[in-house]
Amino acid sequence: MLEIQQLQVSYGGTPIVKDVSLCLAPGQIAGLVGESGCGKSTFLRAVMMLLDDTAHLDGGSILFEGQDLTTLSQKQLRSLRGHEIVMVFQNAALASDPMKRVRHQFYETMSCHQSGVSKKDCYAHAESLLETLHFPDPKRVMKSYPFELSGGMNQRVALAVAMANHPKLILADEPTSALDVTVQAQVVKRMRELRDQFGTAMLVVTHNMGVVAQLCDFVGVMYAGRIVEWGTVSEVLGSPRHPYTCALIRAIPDMSGADPVGIPGAPPDFLCPEPGCDFAPRCSRARAECRKEVPSRCGFSNTHWVLCPYAEGM
Length: 314
What we know:
By secondary structure, the protein is α/β, with parallel strands linked by helices. It has eleven helices and twelve strands. The chain has a domain at about 1-25 and about 35-75 and about 205-300: P-loop containing nucleotide triphosphate hydrolases (Rossmann fold, 3-Layer(aba) Sandwich). It has helices spanning about 40-45, 75-80, 90-95, 100-110, 120-130, 140-145, 150-160, 180-200, 210-215, 235-240, 245-250, and strands at about 1-10, 15-25, 30-35, 55-65, 65-70, 85-90, 170-175, 200-205, 220-225, 225-230, 300, 305.
């Protein structure tokens, strides 16, 4: 359904997303994880073709069902956005119109892509979606403003609005951020239910490995604008190979009481790029050649690869 090849995005001539490639089939959920500022959200907006005026798409292709989105006009993109491809933003309450009730958010989304849809039919469909997401009183939610709902409820409403036109692909930017762990679990469960019921594919950006483990089929680990490791969730989380992935997993607190191990150093400055592997200055396995050129892919299975010639397990 979605095939991205060597996508490159820059801000003011500074590369932010570097040669990112991935594929996503119908019904699959893929996650992108990494430290803040590594280019995850920029990549997601590029896939949606929603980059602002300061960003520039420098190269690559974004094929959605064989159609390259980078070649489409704004009119053609508008017919796709909200219909076949939808985006769930990081803060659902702020992404909604604060002056409009929830029912208007649904009607606006559906009326843009379904000519002649009545408000009665729209509201009935919206209430059905809210019931699918286990809202106890859909009619009350429909009459509410975003500020009258909790963060978790707004996030589930955003998912329901996203599903209003039965899209084929959902792009979700930090869908569980700023939510407590119990609400996070609810949102993750509802997202899986939506996928199972409607067969919708999802590309999810997050920094939460727990969300990835519970929600995703595949995961890409992003560092300094590149995907440095890609594979199934069991491959990447169960048998991580890239030094950065291993370091990320060691840094996750657990219930054993042991102190998490931090990653020494700091991410590279995008404004001062250096040759070679971006992670080399922080990597315990780095060798002289790592600082000279970007490593090529090293495969461990048909689905699992890393950008590191010295990849090992934890």
